[in-house]
Write a structure and sequence with these properties.
- This protein is α+β, with helices and mostly antiparallel strands.
- Helix content is 19%, strand content 39%.
- The chain has one domain (7-99).
- The strands form two sheets. A five-stranded antiparallel β-sheet has the order 3-7-6-5-4. The protein has a two-stranded antiparallel ribbon with strand order 1-2.
- The longest helix has 11 residues, at 89-99.
- It is globular.
Length: 102
Amino acid sequence: MSQHNPAVDATDDRGRSARTDVPVDLGQGQPLSWELGHRVTTLDSTVKQLTLEDRRSGATLSVYEATENTSIVAVRTPVGREKFYEFANGDLDSGLADRGPS
């Protein structure tokens, strides 16, 4: 697996483009609709396992336990856009480990 930082595209209120680097390959995850991702991650029974924040941009990446074998990754861009992805835990764990400290 090649090591790279994918970026999430977003648009702010003025229509300007913003790109945010994230520490995992989002292409390995299954995209979820915003409604489903938001619903699952806001349930009382859903456990947040990890939150990473880019202090320069304000972007965050949060990991939630969905099932024994899957996790939901929530990416929030600096302009407030949220995208959700479902990952097999093995894929997610290896992606975060490959990234290492910046």
